[in-house]
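User: Hey, quick favor. My workstation is busy. Could you predict this chain's structure for me?
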Amino acid sequence: MFKVVRFVPLATAVLAGAACTFAPRYERPEPPLPDAWSAPVEAPATPAADGESIDSLSWRQFVRSPKLTGLIELALENNRDLRIAALNVERARALYRIQRADSFPSADVEGSFTRQRVPPNLTVPGREGVFEQYSASVGAAFELDVFGRLRSLNRAALEDFLAQEWSRRSIQISLIAEVAQAFLTLANDLALKELAEATARNQEEWFRLTQERHRLGAASGLELHQAQTQVEQARADAARYQGDVARDLNVLRVLVGTNIPPDLLPESSDAQEALIGPVPVELPSRVLLNRPDILAAEHALRAANANIGAARAAFFPSISLTGSSGYVSPELSGLFEAPNRSWTFVPRVSLPIFQGGRLRAGLDVAHVDRQIALARYEQAIQIGFQEVNDALALTGALRRQREAQERLVAASARAFELSQARREAGQESYLTLLDAQRSYYAAQQGLIATRRAEQINLVTLYRALGGGWESEQQ
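Assistant: No problem, here it is.
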């Protein structure tokens, strides 16, 4: 029964195995990438272990702060950009399944009833009036992919799906880096705000003493106004940093995507901690080829390569098989009796002859799309190489800058203490004391900013190398 329907899957298996494809043979392009980083790697650099890959370095190994770890986990669960990226992956998977379905036979069951009045001049004697017919059938249709058009389209859809998945992982790395940077920035501005407030309190105390000295005639009006200038400067800085803290907190909330528990918020003391661990930098430059955004660009290139095969196959004949088997009867009661059996088998060949240049233009578009995808792939590699080199170039410079800034803070603190003691002993002018105060305040601000820059540069290096997309849920 249903011989035609049983024949179609058999033909599918035989011809699908013999099907070819006209897609060009894909070979990974030689990356425009030197063998080594052009920026010098300065000690203390963390060496890479034998066989170590940056993508296997989980972000939990990289982040040392429990607070920051908790915030990143919240962001990975609630961030809307990451959620949209995950939904794009699901959409690409569904589109691939739709395209893949064209490679299999389609079958359906159909039943119908026809009631028709036939004009008397067209009726057969004995069958005048109304004509009735009942039918029930099982049909199947299948396109023989002899020239690989469907296989090329399936491959392109699969590569698009994989590109979306790697794009999601790239967004995940960027999210981890952005949360870490926002956390460090908030801690930095909290430390600057507290420093400005503490400086303002000290300046206010000194201003009150100066007012008293001025009342007694021991301080000039110039000294009084200079002391007031220092107070107002510290107050203005405190107000500015308070606004920065509020803005930083809003940025962090958007990145996390939900309310942040108070115990996960940074404190000013976090600005003095090394919250980010070292990154192995003695890795070959070709480690960049494992960066998720570069892998996404390569899968887009593979998809464009497969589309060329589909465009070439469109020049060749398309062969389809359609068949059905069922019953036809003028009466419903006897529909499934043996004499009422019927079947059809319709092979069809369609050969394009004249399309007005549509097929040639489609092939040209496919070739241009591949060149665009290749340029984007190479551009992604070059941008990644630049980002790593920039971060490496800053690593040693920021470390030396931090060490110098720490020495500057210590020297400025000692100079301020000596100036204050000499001023109280009447051996130093008030202008010299003010200069010492300003220098000490500026040195403390510079140290906080340098520590932040050093930590954020480590985050940038980690992201630029493409690390941290592996997780327990992978």
